[in-house]
Design brief:
single chain; about 100 residues; mainly beta; about 10% helix; elongated
């Protein structure tokens, strides 16, 4: 996969949302990076645009997406996501749950 990816970056309430290129993350052990084929804008994204993100800005919008495996980290080869997948990521995830 290329080292950069497109992202919809939100900079603050009613300030702006910009389609830009950011550095693509590398998958860690047991992780799969999904190459996004489609991404929706939902009510949560609109709420964030109006009121801001509790975790601060800037933040990448678009937590409802689908696609195929783009990069697989060590030990991630047997992951169910290694083929095709989709996600509806929680807006506030601690990073320690099974969904992060």
């Amino acid at each position: 996969m290329p080292p950069m990816m497109q992202a919809l970056v939100f900079t603050g309430p009613r300030e702006g949302t910009f389609l830009t290129e950011i550095e693509r993350p590398e998958p860690g052990p047991g992780e799969v990076i999904l190459k996004v084929a489609a991404c929706g804008v939902c009510g949560t994204d609109i709420h964030l645009w109006q009121h801001g993100h509790a975790g601060g800005e800037p933040v990448v919008l678009g937590h409802e997406y689908s696609g195929g495996a783009g990069a697989v980290g060590p030990g991630g080869e047997g992951c169910a996501w290694a083929g095709r997948g989709c996600s509806e990521t929680p807006a506030m995830c601690s990073g320690g749950c099974a969904f992060s």
